[in-house]
Amino acid sequence: MPDTMRAIRLTGPVALDELTVSHVPIPDVEPGRVRIRVRAFGVNESEVTSCKGESGPDFSFPRILGIEAVGVVDAVGDGVDMVPGQKVATMMGGLGRSIDGSYAQYTVVDAANAIPFDTDLSWDVVGALPEMLQTAHGSLTRGLRLQAGQHVLIHGGTSTVGLTAIAIAHQLGATVTATTRNPTRLDLLRQVGADHAVLDDNNLADAVRAIAPGGLDGALEFVSASALPDTLSLIQPGGNVCFVGALDGQWTISEFSPFTIPTGVGLTSYAGDADDLPVDALSRYLRSIEAGTLDIVIAGVYEGLEKVAEAHHDLESGHRPGKHVVTLPANGRTTAHQVTDPQS
């Protein structure tokens, strides 16, 4: 085995054209940890932020970026009950922020953050899943405690996690209302499982009340902290709103009053951990993707670390909804029911 690997390692903030490949030492495997040979990873907004040097205090340079990955176990440390060759997914646990991440041929993570799986889906499909599946599944099942028969709003439905949350909520037996600010994306929302697709404009609240005059059972807020008061107003007593993200970058509300929360309505948030996507849940979703009953939207697939800059550029442009996935390289066969954007 060679002593070095190819990786994108940053020593400080960089422009897109400075996301270049270098050779760095292959990381050692310590007790309780797993070394993964990376086969694919998704590109995320937090990595774009890190490139600009605008991440929070948990991030530091020098750093190999990448907060998620799929691949195969290459080596294990003492006390780890895994075998080389096992397919695994990983995310969270400081990956790509406080420890080196997945923009590399190999990455090392705590064994608890390596989720084993078995599938014949190709690496580009599986590579799209870890972060958005974990966030969508966790926010619905833990943040909202969603039950079959309930009516849920996905505010920000064409975000990567929003599209996945629509598909999962639909599979869980919920009625799903989802929003987009782009009228050309309404059909895409319906395609992945939304029962009602609504344009997010000045008439949004009235449109949702017309669909659910008695109020919604819950909502996932992906758009903005400042949208929370309006979203909360659409929920019936006993329902909940879960704040998950801020697509517009506004994560807080100045001078927020708790009395903004309607009586009897709950407000929570979801940040999540890798164990919020247990092995059985990941396996169930993989089987559904294989069967074509769970739709995953992939915006683009990029072969090789040299294409990471292109993936970042396409993500920032926002022209295509869905996940941008880098493969190293992709193998296997695709049997997933992939949804493509009809406008792209």
Write the layout of secondary structure elements.
Layout: E1 4-7, E2 9-10, E3 22-25, E4 33-43, H1 45-51, E5 63-64, E6 68-76, E7 87-91, E8 106-110, E9 114-116, H2 123-127, H3 130-143, E10 151-155, H4 160-171, E11 175-180, H5 186-192, E12 196-199, H6 204-211, E13 216-221, H7 228-232, E14 235-243, E15 266-269, H8 279-291, E16 296-303, H9 308-317, E17 323-327, E18 338-339
Parallel strand pairs: 10-11, 10-13, 11-12, 13-14, 14-15, 16-17, 16-18
Antiparallel strand pairs: 1-3, 2-5, 4-6, 4-8, 4-17, 6-7, 7-9
Helix pairs in contact: 3-4
Spell out the key features of this protein:
about 350 residues; alpha/beta; Quinone Oxidoreductase, Chain A, domain 1; eight-stranded mixed beta sheet; six-stranded parallel beta sheet; 9 helices; 18 strands; about 25% helix; globular; Zinc-ADH_QOR/CCCR; NADP; 3-oxoacyl-[acyl-carrier-protein] synthase activity; Phthiocerol synthesis polyketide synthase type I PpsC
